[in-house]
Write the structure tokens for this entry.
Amino acid sequence: MAAALAAAACSVAGAQLVPPVPNVGGVIGGAGRTAGDALSNPTGSVDALRGNINMGALAEARVARLESLVRANRDRLEMTGLGPAVRGQVIAIDPDPAALSAAEQAGFVRQGDERIEGLDIRSVTLGVPRGWSVDRALARLRRIAPSGTFTANHLHGRSGEAATAAAIGAAALAQGRPEGANAIGIIDGGVAANPSLTGPVQQRGFAAGAPSPSAHGTAIASLVAGQGPVRGAAPGTALLVADVYGRDPAGGNALALVRALGWMVAQRVRVVAISLVGPANPLVARAVGQARARGTWIVAAVGNDGRAAPPAYPASYPGVIAVTGVDGRGRVLIEAGRALHLDYAAPGADLMAAGANGNLVAVRGTSFAVPLVAGRLAQHVRGPDPIAALDGEAVSRGRRELGRGILCGTCRTVRRR
């Protein structure tokens, strides 16, 4: 299974569906995908990784984690060649009448038909014939409707949470309504109220039970806009948060991610942080391309499954700013993955972030470098050349493993002993 997933992901990596954007998206080649980021107790995972001479073990652990997720939610999820996806469901992208007719005649049932808010994309959800796997259904559709574009509704992963579900459930959501179009967007879990988050935080749910406070989303928000116990890269900045997880076992799916990105575009958000990873997906790729064409910058993580794992998406899509993490000594995290390109590095270890219960937590992972880069980008996004401005801030340039260099190295909130 590990080899099959890795090979399948690599086979579609070259099928880029959106044009590259000048100045970003092509600094370094490689491959990677996210494992669980660590919150509150990151040292145990680091010790385990240091003892892992074969970094391919990270990729194997990733596959085991995904298979476990599917086994625990067989009624909602199934494993495809590219990883977990919503069970019994495929998506037709901008289908023509002939493609839909062929699909329905073959036994596919139309379950949903929508225009994605903020984007020029029509998404039609099709239920697959009884007893068919998603992979079998896609193969059949490509034969009977070669003019159509179809995809699984793949899941995009985030890290495990430090606090228990019950404790997080008791937390209050951060609130507020940003004025104007100066907010920074976050696509993740919900954000809890925290003393470090003093600016307005508007939240919208794109999954069952969302928006709901999460440890991961709260930490990300504080690293973007915290001021107080945690100081972010853009202190006090208003946030627009799309919770694509809520309490849904199928949270983080491609359709939820695309709806969330469309909402950001409709709200004229200029910078969006996405600390999530999944396989290459044509629906997400099309949404990313259209968002970029409308002036929305996307910053995404390269993941934490090591160099042996498949490429991380959305970080690997052209035009997305791909980010890795470094520790307190400026070294790339040993668990960091590789996207098809790398643009910047930022602190991803030896730092604190806001917790979902009003506390501070230690964090580690490439996820936590993303909000720092997004916060700095937002300071320059209305200027004539945002990438040139970021390059002017970057340090340790010339080290290939850091892309264009390290940003926001002084943004780290260190643990007080």
User: Anything to note?
Assistant: Confidence is low (pLDDT under 50) at residues 1-23, 26-35, 45-53, 159-166. The first strand starts at residue 38 and ends at 39.
